[in-house]
Specification:
Layout lengths: L8 H4 L3 E3 L8 H9 L5 E2 L3 E2 H5 L18 E6 L3 H15 L3 E6 L4 H4 L11 H14 L4 E8 L5 H10 L4 E8 L10 H10 L4 E4 L5 H11 L3 E4 L9 H9 L10 H19 L1 H15 L6 H8 L5 H14 L5
Parallel strand pairs: 1-9, 2-4, 3-4, 4-5, 5-6, 6-7, 7-8, 8-9
Helix pairs in contact: 2-11, 4-6, 6-7, 7-8, 9-10, 11-12, 11-14, 12-13, 13-14
């Protein structure tokens, strides 16, 4: 197969994916989600410009384990040469399964540089960026986009990406202006699916198996990408997988199961980053895991004080003693 040939077969098998989330979807959380039913995952977004300038911290975000495959490395930037360099660097040094280009981030610090969702205002440049990445690597290239920037244009925009070699579209069904305000626009996901022949995965407001089934039924998208809805509940992937395959949907996990996964994730993070950094980053993760537990307010307040694994184990003990809230 030619180096720049479009490769869609792998993406066609992705029915439910973990979305890249800065500050949350690190290696430990990705591995947990994959073990509980996610079909694929993506790194936190990485600056292609920083890589090209020799930044030492950015490559650390590319690290992953075999348990996370199929795995994509997500790059952001507004310069085709930067993206090409970043894609080539990722393939040569880390060998992911695909390269993903972020064209959907709404954060001002990203859009202010012309990257992220700002690229949706310039389809020509965006096409050049995709073409540069496709030419630089042998891996398939996907694009994470939004419904649009100010106006909805994801359908025509996706056609440009496909023409330039993109193998898959991950679509958050909101414009940048709407940020995360509900509801997600299912109609634009449907229109993008009709506009392109490559796989399209819908994203936005997936917090239950029913949400995933509804999105797929109403848009005919090939699968879904789950973001905030799985925080504190990575078991959601198993429920979604069962629902979209027409199988009995498992019940909610027990409190013991949730706490076991939380501690497991923390241990994996410590092994990866060391206890000091890992536990500081686990604070915001733990907050989600304690949702719905008796005494949740106190437990979540104490999450900001976590310094060691023993601190977390102590909080988990309190949660198990209190039991799940009935509210």
């Amino acid at each position: 197969m030619e180096k720049n040939a479009r490769k869609t077969d792998m993406f066609s098998a992705f029915r439910v994916m973990l979305a890249p989330m800065a500050g949350f979807s690190d290696s430990s959380f990705r591995a947990v989600c994959m073990s509980l039913g996610a079909d694929a995952c993506v790194s936190e977004m990485i600056s292609a410009k920083a890589l090209r300038l020799g930044d030492k911290k950015s490559p650390l975000l590319m690290k992953f384990t075999e348990a996370e495959r199929p795995f994509g490395i997500q790059l952001f930037g507004a310069d085709p040469d930067d993206i090409a360099f970043g894609a080539r660097f990722a393939e040569e040094n880390y060998v992911p399964d695909f390269i993903d280009i972020n064209m959907g981030c709404p954060a001002p610090k990203i859009t202010g540089s012309g990257a992220g969702s700002k690229l949706m205002t310039d389809p020509v440049l965006s096409g050049e960026i995709v073409a540069a990445a496709v030419s630089a690597v042998s891996l398939p290239v996907s694009c994470k986009i939004r419904a649009g920037y100010h106006e909805t244009n994801a359908d025509t925009f996706s056609e440009v990406l496909e023409r330039n070699g993109a193998s898959c579209i991950f679509l958050h069904g909101r414009t940048r202006d709407r940020m995360y305000s509900p509801p997600v626009d299912l109609d634009i996901i449907r229109r993008v699916k009709e506009a392109v022949s490559i796989p399209v995965l819908g994203n936005g407001d997936i917090s239950s198996a029913e949400d995933a089934v509804r999105m797929m039924e109403e848009t005919s998208c090939d699968g879904v990408m789950v973001g905030r809805g799985c925080l504190g509940d990575p078991f959601l992937f198993g429920r979604i997988k069962a629902a979209i395959n027409g199988l009995p949907v498992p019940g909610d996990p027990s409190l013991e199961e949730k706490m076991d996964i939380l501690v497991h994730q923390a241990k994996a993070a410590i092994e990866d980053k060391g206890e000091t950094l890992a536990m500081r980053e686990m604070r915001k993760q733990a907050v989600y895991y304690f949702k719905g537990v008796n005494g949740a307010a106190s437990l979540r307040a104490d999450c900001v004080k976590l310094e060691t694994l023993d601190d977390l184990v102590s909080l988990v003990g309190r949660a198990l003693s209190a039991g799940r809230s009935e509210s």
